[in-house]
Amino acid sequence: MNSIATTKYRAGLRDALAQAEPPILLMCYAHMTGDTDYVETFRPYIKRVRAYADNIPQAMLDDLHARMERLLCDTPGLTTVDLPPSDLKRMIDICVGEEVPEAYVPLLLADLGLETNDIARLPQEVDVSDRFPENFRMTIVGAGFGGLCAGIYCKRAGIDFEIIEKNEGPGGTWFENTYPNCGVDAPNHLYSYSFHLKHDWTRFFVRQPEIQGYIAQTAKAFGIEDHIRYGQRASAARYDDAAKHWVVDLTDKTGQTQQIISDGVILSCGQLNAPSIPKIPGLETFKGAYCHTAQWDHSIDLKGKRVALIGVGASSVQVGPGIVNQVSELFVYQRSAQWVNQRANYSREVDAGTIWALENIPNYARWYRFQLLWAFSDGLFPALQKDPDWDGKGLSINPVNHELREQILSYMQSQLQDRPDLIEKCTPDYPPYSRRPLFDNGWFDMLKRDHVQLVSTGVSRIEGNTIYGEDGSANDVDVIVFATGFHASKMLPSIEVHGKDGHSIRRDWGEDDPRAYLGITVPNYPNMFLIYGPNTNYAHGGSIVFNIECQVRYIMDALERMASNGSRQIEVREEAHNRYNDQVDARHETMIWTQPQVRTWYKNSKGRVTTNAPWSMLEYWRLTGAVDPKDYIFS
Description:
By secondary structure, the chain is of the alpha/beta class. Helices cover 33% and strands 14% of the residues. The N and C termini lie far apart (55 Å).
């Protein structure tokens, strides 16, 4: 903009400045002027993001808004200033209200798009197909966030590819999970592709239809729709030793089968795709209807029904408040209590001023993403590290974790102050973040309703319409909702995968002990790559989409290095794979998830953590930054 800024633009800007977050505006101002000394004057007033509020004097805010208006409306030729790393480090600290390691500066630069070789960020097609062998082709299984990202990168690189999807539309878990109140518990401005930002989200934490719509819109925007086969289940993927290619068996809904052949496969099936319904004695005698949250039966009428909600995990915290107004009685079965915290903006709609700022103020959306990345992921990482000298009596593992415990407990008590009986039932006896963190979506208000009963026990058996708790309680119900999670450690459960020399995933991994180098590659499976594979889940917050992009960039680097060597195949060396997994296990021993007294889906039947990454987001970003050729066999 310049001195002839339109009246409409000025009005939009003023509304945006009134709604925008001051720390983010400061970062944008410094990035356009280079005046980091001005930004420094705000440091004393900006608290940690998780503190939920800043204390900036109104006069300083007015001055900032006036400066931004002059800058954006009256400055010809406005550009972004190339700031030195030392200034960026100061800005990062001020933005999030606490000291951040200097190592995060390169990550910030990459996410801002200032220093990146991310081909998906470039506006033009980048055809590198001449680097690959003639007719080189990839098969991608799954059209969720991971599979679409892989397809976008393959298309940009000029690699022929096809995506196989069992559902009738894209989205993966976001296509399948349609239970009431289903939505994200990570901020969707972060839980989205870095190369395809969406500014006009209706909420800061949106519901399932909007996320699924974003995924579908992304597929169309990048021209991926024509590459997807919907309604086709990949039932098997076999490496042909003689032909040195992969054969994928497909089955449609009618039972018709066919095969496709390709040079490599990318399996983007995820960790949370096999719903787990507990084997409760007598379930077969239940006379009512039941379903799992991940397989929601929309034909079940809950109005006026007595409903049992079994489980108090992430989906339960959402579906419970989503159905409480329909049912006559709701019995919530809780085997063990969960930490349920508040989250800034969790129930808020995104106002028009914020949308305008995201769309029009240079770098506002990028700095906002970085603030979210730190505040809701790596800023929490120190709370997950065991301190051998800390005596938390089993309730916390270090001083930071103890501070978090006290903060969450204070919030829970404030929500349940008129129900001391619920405070006792809802207070966990283990450290926060030992399990997946949950966020209050009306959960405590629901528990206090007159027709809701929290049953602090597991289910022992079912007889007809009566559910018996392990404490001897008995409740008659008409409907059972299982919010009981997934068989997370049994990865790739619906597809038989066979590698070279007779190897099979089920034999190599057993029932529930998956392992992969960086969660991506496995020895004896040439040109096979995993997305959201073993030990790639973030349990301290953040965004799995961030991890997916790390993995896909790594896969593309692997394929390009393979091609540049004049090879057709790349396979991780067993020693590299084993060394990495030894490092994963050793690092997990220092992490909170290995608390022996805590049952969690993060662990397999032998207690090994198979789902979670022991790394911070920064560490994994650096680990997947480039392929080390010494770790691979090229042929």
